[in-house]
């Protein structure tokens, strides 16, 4: 009878023999593969590296693929990576998890890099008991159902289809808890948007998904059906976005599931490519016509999203608003930065097209001040604004609200794997593969979304109080400095001199004579009874003739746009 020792010895010897045989088998397979790869590589003619260095040349592509991940975790410094560095991501992760977000032993940020923003502290900062939360702002005073909200930070457009069901559920529930709005993106309205009672901004993309008829044209009936949901508070017409200014949205075929296809009204399993602009909007007049139509049909505030490029266009737009009357103005303008985004896009558009937000935001605010429409048209800043300093900068420049998409993706657990366009997102955020989605637990992530909003708003308040103001929206350009090439700093108010602010009180304070609601009830406001006059040289800037109702000292003339 075999002893226990003998049995164990036999088992181990058998296991070693099997493992040895398996090892030899694997080595043999590897050798066979190497011979096959050598023959293939040395005879193929499409890749020079593989032809000159058979087998070994194949590892170049493996290392190139793995390099993204090795750089992120092993080689890149905290402040080096793009589009978001480790320090930025870690701040969002900690804020979303509601854990201690303090740092020790000094800043790792290089404060001498040209272009860095530094806030200037006040010798007598605001006491905690004197601080006040952000005050509510009303958007759309001429709409039948204006929208009033106090929150600073909101969720930018991410379509259902571009992001997954659990990601959308987490964003919706988290937004409801935090009291911020959720932009639907251009992919239409799904039942997941409506489940939590979240305030929604419905985005109308160039393909008009969700509000189109069978021919692809904008449908008043579909608009009314969407507006009938009380959660839908505003409509945003997307002219362009940071990832691809001048090109429509792209949803790869792998993401066009039967459910997505039904919501959008498109074929299953076919690339969803939107037109590069609205076919029915070919000039500024037609844009204002579309804004008026959507506002009239829905009764809700309507604005547009744009990456600014052509400088003179703002003069044309705002001049035409004065010609038609302030009631015709967009209720808000979302200005996006040409820094790219989550969407799939050609590299020339992602890298080289459009103005970055650091240029376009002050330009927009200054033009609105110049034309006296700053209180009529609300400004929403979007584009790589994910930390308190980013948001505080935008408030200093003059934004009313800030939106972010990628910041909330980090709150959901995004690791910047750069797989957004491939349906292989390892964290389940931008994929429809169940094996990846199962890792994203929507109830847990919803809590993190809400915590991110709350902690970011809290720390923006800390910056504001250090600058000596009571509330974040009281921040002005002189509260921040910009680092120059020689290491010295210059105030933002000197770098971006603010145009004289011509406030239209009647458009922002209910109960006063000529308030927007009264003007809207009386019908369209013409240039003749516009609450303020446009700049004296306006009609000389525009390729339109000055309306006879407006008297200017300058002679009536018609010249090309400067």
UniProtKB/TrEMBL annotation:
Transmembrane segments: 20-40
Coiled coil: none
Biological process (GO), any one: glutamate biosynthetic process
Keywords: Membrane, Transmembrane, Transmembrane helix
Gene3D superfamilies xref list: Aldolase class I
SUPFAM superfamilies per record: FMN-linked oxidoreductases (SSF51395)
Region (Disordered): 508-532
Bias (Low complexity) ranges: 516-530
Ranges for domain Glutamate synthase: 146-469
A GO molecular-function annotation: glutamate synthase activity
CDD domains per UniProt: GltS_FMN
Entry similarity comment: Belongs to the glutamate synthase family.
Protein name: FMN-binding glutamate synthase family protein
């Amino acid at each position: 009878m075999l002893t226990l020792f003998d049995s164990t010895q036999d088992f181990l010897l058998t296991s070693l023999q099997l493992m040895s045989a398996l090892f030899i088998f694997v080595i043999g397979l590897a050798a066979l593969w190497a011979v096959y790869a050598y023959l293939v590589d040395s005879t193929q003619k499409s890749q020079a590296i593989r032809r000159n260095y058979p087998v070994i040349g194949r590892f170049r592509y493996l290392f190139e693929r793995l390099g993204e991940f090795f750089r992120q975790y092993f080689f890149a410094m905290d402040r080096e990576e793009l589009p978001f560095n480790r320090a930025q991501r870690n701040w969002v992760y900690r804020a979303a998890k509601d854990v201690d977000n303090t740092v020790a032993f000094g800043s790792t940020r290089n404060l001498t890099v040209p272009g860095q923003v530094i806030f200037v502290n006040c010798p007598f900062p605001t006491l905690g008991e004197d601080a006040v939360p952000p005050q509510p702002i009303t958007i759309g005073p001429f709409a039948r159902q204006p929208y009033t909200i106090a929150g600073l930070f909101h969720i930018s457009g991410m379509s259902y289809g571009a992001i997954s069901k659990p990601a959308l559920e987490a964003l919706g529930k988290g937004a409801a808890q935090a009291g911020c709005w959720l932009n639907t993106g251009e992919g239409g309205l799904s039942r997941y948007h409506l489940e939590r009672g979240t305030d929604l901004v419905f985005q109308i993309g160039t393909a008009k998904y969700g509000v189109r008829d069978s021919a692809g044209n904008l449908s008043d009936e579909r608009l009314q059906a969407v507006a009938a949901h009380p959660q839908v508070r505003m409509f945003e017409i997307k002219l362009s976005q940071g990832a691809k200014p001048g090109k429509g949205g792209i949803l790869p075929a792998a993401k066009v599931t039967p459910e997505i296809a039904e919501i959008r009204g498109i074929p299953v399993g076919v690339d969803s490519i939107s037109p590069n602009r609205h076919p029915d909007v070919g000039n500024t007049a037609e844009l204002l016509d579309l804004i008026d139509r959507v506002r009239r049909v829905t009764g809700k505030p309507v604005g547009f999203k744009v990456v600014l490029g052509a400088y003179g266009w703002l003069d044309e737009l705002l001049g035409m608003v004065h010609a038609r009357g302030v009631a015709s103005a967009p209720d808000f303008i979302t200005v996006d930065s040409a820094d790219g985004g989550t969407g799939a896009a050609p590299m020339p558009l992602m890298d080289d097209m459009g103005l970055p937000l650091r240029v376009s935001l002050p330009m927009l605010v200054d033009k609105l001040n110049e034309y006296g429409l700053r209180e009529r048209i609300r400004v929403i800043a979007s584009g790589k604004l994910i930390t308190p300093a980013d948001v505080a900068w935008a408030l200093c420049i003059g934004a009313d609200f800030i939106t972010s998409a990628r910041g909330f993706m980090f709150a959901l657990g995004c690791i910047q794997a750069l797989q957004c366009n491939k349906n292989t997102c390892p964290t389940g955020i931008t994929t429809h593969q169940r094996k990846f989605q199962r890792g994203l637990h929507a109830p847990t992530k919803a809590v993190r979304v809400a915590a991110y909003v709350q902690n970011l708003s809290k720390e923006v308040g800390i910056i504001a109080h250090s600058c000596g103001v009571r509330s974040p929206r009281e921040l002005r350009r002189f509260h921040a400095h910009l680092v120059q090439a020689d290491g010295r700093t210059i105030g933002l108010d000197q770098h971006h001199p603010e145009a004289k602010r011509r406030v239209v009180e009647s458009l922002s304070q209910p109960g006063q004579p000529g308030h927007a609601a009264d003007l809207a009830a009386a019908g369209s406001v013409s240039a003749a009874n516009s609450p303020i006059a446009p700049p004296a040289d306006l009609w000389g800037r525009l390729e339109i003739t000055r309306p006879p109702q407006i008297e200017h000292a300058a002679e009536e003339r018609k010249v090309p746009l400067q």
